[in-house]
Predict the 3D structure of the following.
Amino acid sequence: MRLKGHGPLTPAELAEAAVLGDVALVLSFAGWILPLPLIFFAAATVPFAALIVRRRLRALIVSAVASGQVAFLLGGINLEINHLFVALVGLAVGLAYRWRWRTLRTALLAVVLVWIPSAAFSLAALAVFSETRRLTLKQIDINTRGPRKLLRHIGLDSVASAIGDVVHWVIVHWTVAIPAGELLASVGVVLLCRRIANPALRRLDAAFARPAPAAPPAEAQEHDQDQETERPGPVPVVLTGVRYRFPGSTVDAVAGVDLRVEAGSFVAVVGRNGSGKSTLARLLAGLDPTAGTITRPGAAALGRPGGTAVVFQRPESQVLGVRVADDLWWGIEPGHALDVDGLLAAVGLAGFAERETSTLSGGELQRLAVAAALARRPALLISDESTAMLDPEGRRQVLAVLGRLRAEGTTVVHVTHHLDEAARAGTVVVLDAGRVAAAGEPDVVLDTLAGVAHL
């Protein structure tokens, strides 16, 4: 798992950390102001759990700290502390899922990651701030007076007295009672949130490939140097017996794939969720396989001029500039010539240079993401379900752009669920359980899937 990693967070990690941190914050704030707060707080742990499953620990830390500061602005120190507690629970839940730990080990993880820091913070705060301690203990007494009075009213004086004795003991021995209560609460909350989060995490794993783990420092440095010195040449690319298995998994995400992608071709990749489409896309983009060989004339050169560019299904996570023109310049080296108007015209956004990106529709954002990819003049453009979140008009716009790119000589690999989109390609590859079930011309391959409107 990518708990360790060297170097700064990548743009993809920062984008995912920002998006998931914001989702968690919205749920935390909803729990702060709406009825049934525990439901919202439990749901808020899921984005943090998903982040630690997919990314490095530092990505979760950055996400929690940044969204925690916004929580402070919205609800003060109490909401911020609650939000950071949610992040700790999400960390424990995500690690337990990633490591496939069962209930006992998950409970121990809750003790180490949630209870110890929470109890230490509570004891330190109550010891230093005597007035806060007095009010907290007084609140415990007040909250139990109503139930005790009701018990006496129905004749259960002995039970009411016993509860009163327990409350008195808690107030006197608060240094023991509060950590003990937090221990039970921490373990219970983590186990409950685990049951809530695990179905969502399983669906996430089925729908999206996990990012590859970072290479060891020396290996990563050597690999980076090779990538920088080797000339870009992503296509044609030949996959022979390629397999890829994610760390901690017991099955291959793709298995025994033999595939050739020619220069200037348009290849559509289709298959159900979990069939390995996104993993295959990442292998084509330069991910090293677990087994097998990937042969190409040069380097995949992801993000480099003349190399490979990838457009994902959520354009809002890729569009970083405030203005459209700013987004095209994002990451471009100083002194590099960039025809902003020409790029925008190529994707059907002529005259949009000064528009704020927040005013664009989903289809316009996705076309802007394609334009930003084209700014590096890639030889291979990989569209990883870039139309999945768009309405029919947005899909039509993006597909028209991909078709024009192919006509201009750019190799396009389009991952999609939609068979009508696949029919526009020159070659269709059908994946099933990580294997190539069929590959060939659309008329031939899609006839085998007749009657299936959407995979």
Notes: Strands lie at 237-244, 254-261, 266-270, 291-295, 308-311, 380-384, 411-415, 427-432, 435-440. Residues 57-98 form the longest helix (42 residues). The chain is about 55% helix and 10% strand. Residues 20 and 47 are 5 Å apart (CA to CA).
